[in-house]
């Protein structure tokens, strides 16, 4: 099989398409024929050894994987060859096939295309956990989403708007702000402008927000926190802006505000059944047209190097999705 593997974290140039033996599933494992692997900002960091988890080398990037089962190991009774599945791994998806633990695999409903399942798997689940489990979102909340056209940001806009909240999308380009409006944002701000907090005050009902969804950090962090109303919640997801923001602690006191960390991996690890229910519900809502599918930029496995670089580029539009050349016969078998 072909896999896009790297032998060093020093440079993305160490990654290349490589011929590897087809892996056999051990007891409790399954092998997927990869139909699509989605990549987020994290995958670009991980491939450079810059993420909090450093995978072993050689490393095959791509963690958000959808495919069709083509082999099951001993002791696997709940899954069968032909099942359409998704899994979130630390990597392995930029390949024709991958072996994973059966316990980490979830079914995909019929009629939901596998590339869509891969593209929404982590971002929708993360946004849902952020807004509803950590952020205690209600229909009367005003929500500011930073990086609102990014993977997690776009999912947060779509979910918060459908929950009835007033959503203000902060994004750094005209077409990104338009995309956020199409997802349900009622107002937008260009947070690359130095006076963007004034623009936010002008468009937020009452001049403040109750919830900030923050996957960006950096320079946007403190102005966003200062824009909270009393009892506001600022949710820290990551630092796509490149820097970890800082905050004078008195601001939390003045606002009676919560600064909340979000770690969706911890949620998945500690509440797997709850996570599975949420995931299933999100899949069905996208399949039924209640939630929009993520925007996607597709790459083949032969274009894997471009795909990986695209994850780190602010100019990219939509989720990066790698569909191995030739794809995979998607039988549409019901999960
Ligand atoms: N905590 C968790 O559980 C969890 C789970 C998933 C992801 N995350 C984190 O969430 C963050 C976003 O991930 P994602 O996959 O949604 O990323 P993404 O699709 O690349 O979106 C990130 C957004 O950040 C903005 N941005 C600002 N400065 C940037 C820069 N210098 N380079 C690139 N983008 C920049 C961009 O929007 P503008 O151009 O509009 O500013 C971009 O759309 C990452 O830090 C990731 O680690 C956290």
From TrEMBL:
It holds the Pfam family ADH_N. SMART domains: PKS_ER. It comes from the Bacteria. GO terms for molecular function: oxidoreductase activity. Gene3D superfamilies: Medium-chain alcohol dehydrogenases, catalytic domain (3.90.180.10), NAD(P)-binding Rossmann-like Domain (3.40.50.720). Residues 10-322 form the Enoyl reductase (ER) domain. PANTHER family: QUINONE OXIDOREDUCTASE-LIKE PROTEIN 2, SHORT-CHAIN DEHYDROGENASE/REDUCTASE. This is NADPH:quinone oxidoreductase family protein. It comes from Ottowia beijingensis.
